[in-house]
Amino acid sequence: MDLAERLSELAQALFQASAAVGVLEAIEEVLDEYRDGELTLKEAMEEIQGLVEEFQAVRALSEMSPEELMAMAEEEEGGLRS
Question: Whole-model pTM?
Answer without folding.
Answer: 0.71
